[in-house]
Specification:
7 strands, Rossmann fold, single chain, 46% helix, SDR_fam, KR_dom, alpha/beta, NAD(P)-bd_dom_sf, oxidoreductase, 14% strand, Beta-ketoacyl-ACP reductase
Length: 253
């Protein structure tokens, strides 16, 4: 299979896009490390759903904590030897309308969101890249958002963090290409996940689906298929790309 012998670390792998990505990477032959923050039972459900062709495992870490990130990567490398594919999928999406959020909450949401959605992925990349260089290369795939382009008036820190993650991806694609490390970003819109369910099942659900050119939103498997494609040899020239998987809903009409 295309990813035989590859070790893939998937953050936020206990549900949604992360679970679908773990499943498809494993089906392509990778050994998958499922990262989770707190829901060990859900991470175990992901593990139980993976084909038994690899030494898959789950590992816990709070990505807001740089020390826990370092321990996570050290543990993976100690057990598996390296990390060939890093998927930065974990994220947080907190309401933060500027005129309705207290100053104290405004600051705290900024800290949590940037630490989880941008600084955490940057720290993970920094921890993983030396091992990729030593192994002769690797793939880094960052899950961003259409919100980086459209703006997020009620989730301000989220939109800014995802725009930053796009820029981080492009900068590191340039910095790491000579080491055979290829960095791409995927920008979904709403996806049929637990995190999106309150919005999709709420009063704006029909409107949200109507924002796309195809009359529906993506499901996790669609995003996971693209992650797996980008993780596979033969896609090197796509490094630095930010690829939309949002039914053209990032376009304003």
């Amino acid at each position: 299979m295309a990813l035989d012998g590859v070790v893939a670390l998937v953050t936020g792998g206990s549900r949604g896009i992360g679970r679908a990505t773990a499943q498809q990477l494993a089906a392509a032959g990778a050994t998958v490390v499922v990262h989770y923050v707190s829901n060990k039972a859900a991470a175990q459900e992901t593990l139980d759903s993976l084909p038994s062709n690899g030494n898959h495992e789950a590992r816990q870490a709070d990505l807001k904590d740089p020390d826990q990130i370092a321990d996570l990567v050290d543990g993976v490398v100690t057990r598996h030897g390296t990390v060939g594919v890093l998927v930065n999928n974990a994220g947080t999406y907190e309401p933060q309308p500027v005129l309705e959020t207290s100053y104290a909450d405004w600051q705290e949401i900024w800290r949590r969101t940037l630490d989880t959605n941008l600084v955490g992925p940057a720290n993970l990349i920094h921890a993983v890249v030396p091992h990729m260089v030593a192994a002769g290369g690797g793939r880094i795939i960052n899950i961003t958002s259409r919100g980086a382009f459209r703006g997020e008036p009620n989730h301000v820190a989220y939109g800014a963090s995802k725009a930053g993650l796009n820029s981080l991806s492009q900068s590191l694609a340039k910095a790491l290409g000579r080491h055979n490390i290829f960095v791409t970003a995927i920008a979904p819109g709403y996806v049929e996940t637990d995190m999106a369910a309150p919005y999709l099942n709420g009063p704006r659900g029909h409107e949200i689906r109507g924002e796309t050119a195809i009359g529906r939103i993506a499901d996790p498997d669609e995003v996971a298929r693209l992650v797996t494609f980008l993780a596979t040899p033969g896609t090197e020239s796509m490094t630095g790309g930010v690829i939309d998987v949002n039914g053209a809903s990032y376009l304003r009409t």
